[in-house]
Amino acid sequence: MKHLTKAIALSAIAIGTSALPAFAQEWPARPVTVIVAAGAGGGTDATGRLLAHDLELIFGQPFNIVNRAEGGGIAGITELAGAAPDGYTIGILFNYAPYRHLGMGNLTSDSYTPIAQYNFDYAAVHVKADSELQTLDQVLDKLKADPQSLAIGCGATCPSSWSSALSKVFIDEGIDITELRWVPNAGAAAGLQELTASGIDILAASVPEAASMLDAGEVRTLAVLAPERLESFPNIPAANEQIANAAPGGVFRALVGPAGLPAEIVEKLEVAVKQIYDSEDFQATMKSRGFGLRYADRDGLLEWLHTHEADTETVLRAAGVIN
């Protein structure tokens, strides 16, 4: 049944692109590189591999994941932006907007060709299993009493997608986030290792990324920054259960190419991602691993990138990163 489903998807793509120029009809004629600007074992890597596996089944060519996590991911998304727009280098984009304000390149939505969004994961606040902290409001109380009392892991370069979501909660509660002790991590997986080694006190990252350590009893999740509890993790409270009107926030993941990717190739990939997203296999696997599902086509994704850039600027101004 899986092979039949993939065959139907490929037929749909072939029918929809039969009038395309020869180069686009022939694409992909060789393996495609998929840049994942994160380390192995994190959410971006895991969801990227799921997507690449199904793209390979549809197109009959390898879609090879290349992990480029250096600099909190800036190396990978910069390489992606600078790749030749020939369809043979694409990648997984996530919350990229902070980098420009940190002086780490000048990447904007214009640096990429949007294809489709397939995921959104809410941020969460994790502690070591034996931590004295039991709730998110206890974290707030401790930071209000002494802003330097907790080492807060960003789950990537600071500020990160995860730490920006947590920062919004802190800002709304009257905490000056410039006074806090933020600690960069080489990705969420590395941050979790630092958490269990007592190198940091709390970590901002998604729940799915911490799932194996939650199951092993090594970490606890105080709250997820979502409007309600996650279906896959019903025992973890939503932040607004502890703090009134706690703002939701998290990380999006989307397939993009470098700027200038031919529309004909974009169309083939967009159709393929939609077929994958709608498949029972992909939906079931994402849900079983706790990853959030959110789809947007190329136009919807571009609109979201603009929103992401505007929201990031708001948070970073409050953090004093930009004037």
From TrEMBL:
<comment type="similarity">
    <text>Belongs to the UPF0065 (bug) family.</text>
</comment>
<dbReference type="InterPro" id="IPR005064">
    <property type="entry name" value="BUG"/>
</dbReference>
<protein>
    <recommendedName>
        <fullName>ABC transporter substrate-binding protein</fullName>
    </recommendedName>
</protein>
<dbReference type="Pfam" id="PF03401">
    <property type="entry name" value="TctC"/>
</dbReference>
<keyword id="KW-0732">Signal</keyword>
<dbReference type="InterPro" id="IPR042100">
    <property type="entry name" value="Bug_dom1"/>
</dbReference>
<feature type="signal peptide">
    <location>
        <begin position="1"/>
        <end position="24"/>
    </location>
</feature>
